[in-house]
Amino acid sequence: MRPPAGPLGDRLRRQAKQLGIATDRRGAQQADALPYGGRLAIGLLAAEARQFDVAGRYFEQAIAAKTRREGTLLSTWGLSLLVSERYADAAKVFQRAVDEHAISADNAAMQFYLAGALAMAGQDDAAVAAARRAAASPEATPEYLFRLGWVLFPRPSRQGSETGDRRRAGPVRHRLLDGRRADIVRKRG
What is the pLDDT confidence band of residue 67, given thresholds at 50, 70 and 90? Predict the structure, then answer.
């Protein structure tokens, strides 16, 4: 693992040194022998350093330790990707948490984060479904109820022009929470 230049890289090198890990090629072999906590620490530091490939490897190794903390670990990993604007990757991690039953599919918080990541990754239909699951949960809070409206509301594209809508304009059929159907008209601009 080679830390980046700058203050964050310096911090990562200091942490690696405290854990007894070299920051050159030998570091990868040494880190592979770490217990769960060490792998998690390196994964978090690498994510903070925006070295997502390294972070992913150590999060995977921490998950492989089978500590019964997989749900917390996957949500932490997903949130680190989400705040770093790696939306598609975050959606995959959140979906994995549900698919592997590390977190219940009925967990409103997980569905809330999954809906946000999917929406920002441009996967609107899946985002609407996740937002509905979050809103339908008995543990739903006003923020979780609001997510469905947020997903449906048109916003500028993160990949296209700054003023364009990332979805096409025109009516779109959506099923409301109570099962009724509604046309939602999106306008550009």
Answer: confident
Write the pLDDT tens digit of every residue in 116-133.
999 999 999 999 999 999
Query: 0.70 exceeded by the pTM?
Result: no
What structural domains and CATH numbers belong to the chain? 1-67 (no CATH), 75-189 (1.25.40)
pLDDT of residue 106 exceeding 80: yes
Give residue 174's identity as a one-letter amino acid code: H
Which of 111, 107, 128, 118 minimizes the C-alpha distance to 181? 128
Token couple for 152: 């449906």
Q: Is 136 exposed, middle or buried (0-12, 13-18, 19+ CB in 10 A)?
A: middle
How many alpha carbons lie under 13 Å from residue 26 in its C-beta half-sphere?
Answer: 5
